From TrEMBL:
Residues 25-231 form the LicD/FKTN/FKRP nucleotidyltransferase domain. Transmembrane segments: none annotated. This is Lipopolysaccharide cholinephosphotransferase. It comes from the Bacteria. It comes from Fusobacterium necrophorum BL.
Amino acid sequence: MYNQEELKKIQRKKLEMLKDIVQCCEKNHLIYWLDSGTLLGAVRHQGFIPWDDDIDIAMPLEETKKLERVYRSEDYQIEKTKEEGMNFYKVISKKDFIRKDQEILYVDIDIFPVQYYPNSFFLKFLNSFYRLRKNRSEKFQVKLFLENIFINIKRHFEKTKYFSDEVLQKRIYEICRKNSEQKEYISYTHDCGFHLYFWKETEIFPLKKIKFEDTYFQAPNNLHVYLKKLYYSYQELPPIKKRIPPHYSKGDFKLETR
């Protein structure tokens, strides 16, 4: 069993960070919304997923660049991820860290840039192929069946230079560049490192408020569609044995201050 009290301390610290980021966004008229597990937690638990501490927000790409320019804090700093193929932002605590056995972990928040995409069948095909390379799979059987077919195909093609991660990203970028006037869908940027879940603009905008812990934050307009595309059966709780912090599943962990 993990240390629930320590996890709650980390959650409270990250909530403070989120409020600070949102204050900057509101002051500078920047668009943001709760995303991924944070949005799931808001809908299903009205706050954090009890066994998780992640906070994720999404922002239009140009807004993330502006946030990087204007965000100033004595306690936190914003920076781009350094991991290859994972191009998004993190806000990191300057003073707090998590000690996990002998490992030091950041106290951070993820900011995922999003952009518009055209309605392109070829784009969706390339994205599906890219997702297979990343071994991401949906939870319903029809797609799993189709993926089993595609997996055998991709194992052959991915050995060639034509379907490397770099080439796939470049092709997705070219489709977006050539169809820049078509703005039918919104998803993560092509180099963010994630599968592109395509939402219609009306499924996200206009944004609406949702309660997360003790504060209301911006959220996509159609919560059901947004979360179903991300998690499908998002209202179903995982088995009890899987309700453990993903980052601290093994070993002791503790929030500390420098």
